[in-house]
Amino acid sequence: MDLKELIAAIEPADKAWADKAWERLRSQIRPRGSLGRLEEMAARVGSICRTLQPDLSRKLIFTMAGDHGVAEEGVSAYPQEVTAQMVFSFIQGWASISVLASHVGADVRVVDCGVAADLPPEWAVEHRKIAKGTGNIAQGPAMSWEEAERAVLAGAELVMKAAREEGYRLFGTGDMGIANTTPSTAIVAAFSGKPVAELTGRGTGIDDEAWKRKVQVVERALEVNRPDPDDPLDVLAKVGGYEIAGLAGAVLGAAAAKVPVVCDGFIATAGALIACRLVPAAKDYLFVSHKSQEVGHAAMYGLLGLEPILDLGMRLGEGTGAALAMSLVEASAKVLRDIKTFEEAGVTDTGH
């Protein structure tokens, strides 16, 4: 499958099923609208899954990992080797995403999209490395168009295979990559046209001097590369990252497989933004998990027109916010499926 075929395979969610879902939700044994946003989520799940009996109990999070040449500009508080070290922590099951995914009953798969180190082949990761880290976006493009497309397709293929062959019904996306808030900031700056300083956060906790340097680096990346906001693949290739491309592909893969996908915070939403610019219908399948503390995140979900589910002051990444929000998306499916209607329960309906 090439990118054109993937794009062609994506259809909008089914509005007729959304209408059926709302009809059932309004007929359930409780006051109309009393479950608030859970009802909105339930109607979306009905339209995505094309059923009033959705089962989202099989949950899988893909944590995409990649390194960035821009790390050499001093934009992160951590050295680049931490990316591979954290991948090892994920597969050992002792990292934050491991604990929170286990809590909500979700599986986790780590994908090497572009880690700078050679990960041992026996490590329990999906080995989809495009290259050992991107180019330094402050000096030139992150990757070629061909590499960007390969990384997008890798993410899409992983989700489609898991949905179609393994029976997973609800997906989450997360990231790992030292310095990856810098390309994510460049992406939202390219699409929004807002001043870089308004979109730049402190990532892993950089000080004031490093923050000023980060703003300058993003501004230089945009000036050097001139990404075309009307061409999402151009933006991705020029100022993105391999894991961001994989995250974009995961959203497209979920849309193609007609299953819901919950993106994590700042980096995962950058990938989702690329996906939804490539295929606007992909937004129908997407839930934004939480409001990241990264200041540019609000601009991202504003461009998507989607309201995040949670606001817990989180800014970790890895898929941690997605894990927690996936539990609520699954809960909304159970609301649609399992709460009886007045007629089914034999309860008098007062019409309120």
Automatic annotation (TrEMBL):
It comes from the Bacteria. It is an enzyme of class 2 (transferase). Pathway: Nucleoside biosynthesis; alpha-ribazole biosynthesis; alpha-ribazole from 5,6-dimethylbenzimidazole: step 1/2. The keyword GTP-binding does not apply. Keywords: Cobalamin biosynthesis, Glycosyltransferase, Transferase. It catalyses: 5,6-dimethylbenzimidazole + nicotinate beta-D-ribonucleotide = alpha-ribazole 5'-phosphate + nicotinate + H(+). It holds the Pfam family DBI_PRT. InterPro entries: Nict_dMeBzImd_PRibTrfase, Nict_dMeBzImd_PRibTrfase_bact, Nict_dMeBzImd_PRibTrfase_N, Nict_dMeBzImd_PRibTrfase_sf. The active site is at E318. One of its GO terms (biological process) is cobalamin biosynthetic process. The keyword rRNA-binding does not apply. Its EC number is 2.4.2.21. One of its GO terms (molecular function) is nicotinate-nucleotide-dimethylbenzimidazole phosphoribosyltransferase activity. SUPFAM superfamilies: Nicotinate mononucleotide:5,6-dimethylbenzimidazole phosphoribosyltransferase (CobT) (SSF52733). Belongs to the CobT family. HAMAP family: CobT. PANTHER family: NICOTINATE-NUCLEOTIDE--DIMETHYLBENZIMIDAZOLE PHOSPHORIBOSYLTRANSFERASE. Catalyzes the synthesis of alpha-ribazole-5'-phosphate from nicotinate mononucleotide (NAMN) and 5,6-dimethylbenzimidazole (DMB). This is Nicotinate-nucleotide--dimethylbenzimidazole phosphoribosyltransferase. It comes from Desulfacinum infernum DSM 9756.
